[in-house]
Amino acid sequence: MSISLEQMVSLGGLAGEIMLKNGAETYRIEETMDHITKACGALTVESFVIPTGVFLTVTDHTGRSLTVMRRVRNRTINLDRIAKVNELSRRLVDQRIEYTNAHAILEYIRRERTGFSLMPAMLASGTIGGGTAILQNGIFFEIVAAFIAAMLVRYIAHVVSRLHGVQFAFEFLGGMAVAFCGALLHLMWPNLSPDVVIIGGIMPLVPGVAITNAIRDVIAGDLLSSLSRGLEAVLTSAAVAMGVVIVLAFNGW
Predict the structure, then answer these.
(1) Domain ranges across the chain
(2) Where are the beta strands (DSSP E) in the chain?
(3) Cα–Cα distance, 170 to 158 (Å, whole number)
(4) What is the pLDDT of residues 112-142, one digit of tens each?
(5) Inter-CA distances, 169 with 173, 238, 242, 245, Å
(6) CA 199, CA 175: separation in Å to the nearest integer?
(7) Which of 13, 61, 124, 171 is the residue whose CA sits 20 to 30 A from 244?
(8) 226 with 218: CB under 8 angstroms?
(9) How confident is the model over 195-219, as pLDDT tens digits?
């Protein structure tokens, strides 16, 4: 089956958009788009990815070139979708799937609802907070408090996402909520350490994936993307810190 230049560009651009929206590294996105379009018959491929957009230029064997740009405004972390696109790329390279099926699968990956419901996500977040409190040698009640504070952070994230809040609002409000929980518990039970509760509660807010991707982009030579991801991680950390500091300052600590 002959694949047109427009179809090559459409398939490669869609794969890149899905991966960028779900937190893939820059070099991985570019390599995947290259593999997919060349598997479809492209002669040369030039790809360029930044955290807010995907650019792809494909040239076929007749010398015709076509460029596509896909703007990405909202990003999250979903390793399952990234793995599915990578697997699809391998199947195309090995000629185990045709274009029509590949495009349909990508559209399904883009539209499918993934992830856990609210309660399991809150429990997972609480486990992170409680586990961090254990590592700090917290007592039983401090561990429970950190568990509850981290669950509250995940609930705030759910509410902010439903209200389509501005970027970094969730981190700021989450930091405030955790600090308020720690301060309130310390006032009620002075023997409880607010530091253990606050550190455990904000742990789900730490931008670990963003920092890791920024470092990997530096190693791969994608300096523009690494600076953008690094700045995003810094601003996320600053929003969390501001939320905590405001509450603690209000309490005179």
Answers:
(1) 5-111, 118-250
(2) 44-50, 53-59, 65-71
(3) 9
(4) 876 677 888 899 999 999 999 999 988 899 9
(5) 6, 11, 11, 15
(6) 10
(7) 124
(8) yes
(9) 899 999 999 988 888 888 888 888 8
